[in-house]
Design a protein that fits this description.
Layout lengths: L6 H14 L1 E4 L5 H15 L14 E2 L4 H4 L4 H5 L1 H11 L4 E10 L24 E7 L11 E2 L17 E2 L7 E5 L4 E2 L9 E9 L9 H4 L2 H6 L2 H6 L16 H4 L2 H8 L10
Antiparallel strand pairs: 1-7, 2-3, 3-9, 4-7, 4-9, 5-6, 5-8
Length: 272
């Protein structure tokens, strides 16, 4: 399903991500994997309508809360190459912040350039967010490939709106990663076909996730997921952050433990 980049390639990608604020890992997901994931995402998109403003796109479809809806993305979330690059910026306790789809249809206009960590009003700050975009169709300048301003993650203020941004062009199966401080935006689709991407965005383990994973997913579902997926969804401890009544959060969603906590009983007290 996945290509396995060697250590030299990954080291080169790490250096480029840190220096330029973005990197493209080409064709990480094979054709069969792309087909499987795309079919699952298209099924979710079938009943959806277009956005209702310039930022979300009047000709763009989006679906959120993906890990409550499908298991098709679990392998992408756990991919070792992806996690190595994300953790090279955010550290070992990086967690999923939000997962969504972005299907840009013909005649969509360009999205305004923006930063994805702007909702954290702390400046200056170390990298707090690393976002990823999996290309389930080819990304080109013509079909709305994400536009970026390389190196702008090091710029303290906003970029000049007239500044030259470049379109990310990559074949399907590739993944784009970028620092949340990088100025970027969706491109205009001037073709007759939609451009389809899946965005898995990460943040440091000690800040709040953009999408509330704890309320988005049924605890019964979370208990069935692989340990690594549980941790990446935020069911983990980051230093001294994340405890529930002194317990690891995965212990706290076991039914009998939850009942005891909600009843206000102490650990070791039998639930009535």
């Amino acid at each position: 399903m996945f290509r396995t980049p060697d250590a030299a390639e990954l080291a080169c990608h790490e250096e480029h991500l840190a220096r330029e604020g973005y990197v493209i890992v080409p064709e990480l997901l094979d054709a069969a994997g792309c087909g499987t994931v795309l079919a699952a995402m298209q099924a979710l998109h079938a009943p959806e309508t277009f956005g209702d403003n310039d930022f979300t796109g009047f000709r763009t479809k989006r679906v959120f809360n993906l890990f409550a809806r499908t298991r098709a993305l679990d392998p992408l979330l756990r991919n070792p190459a992806l996690l190595r690059l994300v953790r090279s910026i955010l550290g070992p306790e990086a967690q999923l912040s939000i997962a969504s789809t972005m299907e840009i249809h013909p005649d969509e206009t360009p999205q305004a350039l923006h930063r994805d960590d702007a909702y954290f009003p702390v400046n200056p700050h170390p990298p707090l967010v690393v976002n990823t975009m999996w290309a389930l169709s080819d990304f080109t300048d013509a079909n709305g490939g994400t536009r970026i301003v390389p190196g702008s993650h090091r710029q303290p203020g906003p970029v000049d709106p007239a500044a030259a941004s470049i379109a990310v062009e990559m074949p399907r199966g590739s993944v784009l990663l970028w620092d949340g401080q990088l100025w970027h935006g969706g491109g205009a689709n001037r073709t007759g076909e939609p451009r389809f991407g899946v965005s898995l965005n990460f943040c440091r383990g000690w800040i709040r996730q953009q999408e509330n994973q704890y309320l988005s997913l049924d605890p019964a579902l979370v208990r069935m997921l692989p340990d690594e997926v549980q941790k990446l969804l935020g069911y983990d401890i980051c230093q001294f952050v994340g405890w529930v009544d002194g317990r690891h959060p995965m212990r706290a969603i076991v039914p009998e433990v939850r009942a005891r906590i909600h009843a206000g009983l102490h650990r070791g007290t039998p639930a009535r």
